[in-house]
Specification:
The protein is mainly alpha-helical. It contains four helices and no strands. It folds into two domains: 43 residues, no CATH class; 33 residues, no CATH class.
Length: 93
């Protein structure tokens, strides 16, 4: 949940030759301040002609709970915009 002003200050403080590795969850709730930096960078890296094209690595293994867990299935449905599945999962007991 790093906001844009904080990330700008971080990048300004680094020397030009520095390399930086950002690790986080692009689907995490956005900060209350402006910007969702990690999600925006991940979106930019997905663009066909982006300079970040080969700089994004997505980890897909879920270690918190299994893929059949209702929370996992609901979060996946919400992320993909599948309202019908989300409502179905919410209706299960």
């Amino acid at each position: 949940m790093v906001d844009l002003p904080l990330m700008a200050k971080l990048f300004d403080a680094l020397p030009e030759h520095a390399r930086i590795i950002l690790l986080g969850d692009r689907d995490q709730l956005a900060s209350v301040a402006p910007g969702s930096v990690l999600a925006d960078l991940a979106d930019a890296a997905a663009a066909p002609k982006s300079r970040l094209r080969n700089a994004l690595f997505v980890l897909t293994k879920n270690y918190r709970f299994g893929n059949e867990n209702a929370i996992y299935r609901l979060s996946s449905a919400v992320r993909t915009g599948d309202a019908n599945s989300a409502l179905e999962i919410l209706g299960q007991r």
